[in-house]
Amino acid sequence: MSLSFATEKQVAVAAVRRACLLTSSVFNKLVKNETLTKGDKSPVTVGDYAAQALISSILSRAFPEDPIVGEEDASDLRKPSGKELKDRIVSLANEALTSELALGDNKDWGIGPGSEQTDAELLDAIDRGNYEGSSIGRMWTIDPIDGTKGFLRGEQYAVCLALIVDSKVQLGVIGCPNLPFDPKDPSKGTGCIFVAVRGHGAEQLTLTLSDPTPLSIPSTEASDISFLESVEAAHSSHSFNDRVASLLSVTRSPVRMDSQAKYGCLARGEGGAYLRMPTGVGYREKIWDHASGNILVEEAGGIVTDSRGQPLDFGIGRTLGENYGVIAAGKDVHPLILAAVQKAQAEEKAKAKA
Ligand SMILES: Nc1ncnc2c1ncn2[C@@H]1O[C@H](COP(=O)(O)O)[C@@H](OP(=O)(O)O)[C@H]1O
Ligand SMILES: [Mg+2]
Ligand SMILES: [Mg+2]
Ligand SMILES: [Mg+2]
């Protein structure tokens, strides 16, 4: 029987839940100068930094020995020009750490009233995410706001946290504050937390940790799926997906959504397939963009591979290495999608030669 990671699960869900409350309250108050543009031209907001500080400081208390691979680092906040931003992040993180939430909390994890951290402690918590990754041992990976562009547009984004042991994801949590809990029943409102533990299944909870629902991907005909794909055309090739869809006689339009919310939707039976093929040379996918979604889909009975049909390797560092794309789908349609992807790749190669 596989390990149940019961304490890890409780801590991870509590941390993601607090980070979801933090990010949704930040969104309503976000002002213009609270967003920076990083070296790769992508945006980062006070919400991203504060959520990473919060999650990392909870993990550091609960599991002080575990290294963390986090998306953000505090170098810009340590500069004199970053002081205003830093002050705001410290106050947001402390507010989220100390607020009293009845459920799922534990003083030993450094959360609840009286758990304030100093500026230096919170900046250090962000920088604990600088771990380079490893194929051996335990490590956590945090994407404090996945889909920052979606977050800024008021659309989908996700707070993602996963535990990787010896290169394999063992626990994944994805918090999606803007995702309808039940698309068929709007009265259930928005906000979901997806959780999966290796060998123990996948489930969905509300942001108040109620309504736990086990998740599994229903079987479908390949022609009945609709692809879940990035909103940002620079992140995944829309035209390649269109070609794959036509090879499979898919008639439904693709569903575009930012963040790992796509993996959550797939796991609960929406869409049927996630397809992310590289748009150009050079970009390497980051482990924090896929770790939680990977286990969620696998535990919901699906398959996740690259375009060679190989599983993703979470043990080679902060990235997934050379980019062969990502294909995630239910187990009956995955082989068909993989074959169609390989056919479309062969066509592209032949065209490039001609
Ligand atoms: N050229 C590129 N190709 C693929 N992914 C990219 C990319 N540039 C940025 N990304 C990643 O795409 C993530 C968003 O995924 P999606 O397109 O599914 O919404 C971003 O996460 P962040 O928003 O956390 O930075 C970022 O890490
Ligand atoms: Mg980012
Ligand atoms: Mg991301
Ligand atoms: Mg992010």
Automatic annotation (TrEMBL):
GO BP, sorted A to Z: phosphatidylinositol phosphate biosynthetic process; sulfate assimilation
Organism for this UniProt entry: Panaeolus cyanescens
Family: Belongs to the inositol monophosphatase superfamily.
Residues at which Mg(2+) binds: 71, 143, 145-146, 289
Name used for this protein in its record: 3'(2'),5'-bisphosphate nucleotidase
Pfam family, one: Inositol_P
Alphabetical UniProt keywords: Hydrolase, Magnesium, Metal-binding
Necessary cofactors: Mg(2+)
A GO molecular function held by the record: 3'(2'),5'-bisphosphate nucleotidase activity
Swiss-Prot/TrEMBL catalytic activity: adenosine 2',5'-bisphosphate + H2O = AMP + phosphate; 3'-phosphoadenylyl sulfate + H2O = adenosine 5'-phosphosulfate + phosphate; adenosine 3',5'-bisphosphate + H2O = AMP + phosphate
Gene3D superfamilies, alphabetized: 3.40.190.80, Fructose-1,6-Bisphosphatase, subunit A, domain 1
Enzyme Commission number(s) of this protein: 3.1.3.7
Domain of life: Eukaryota
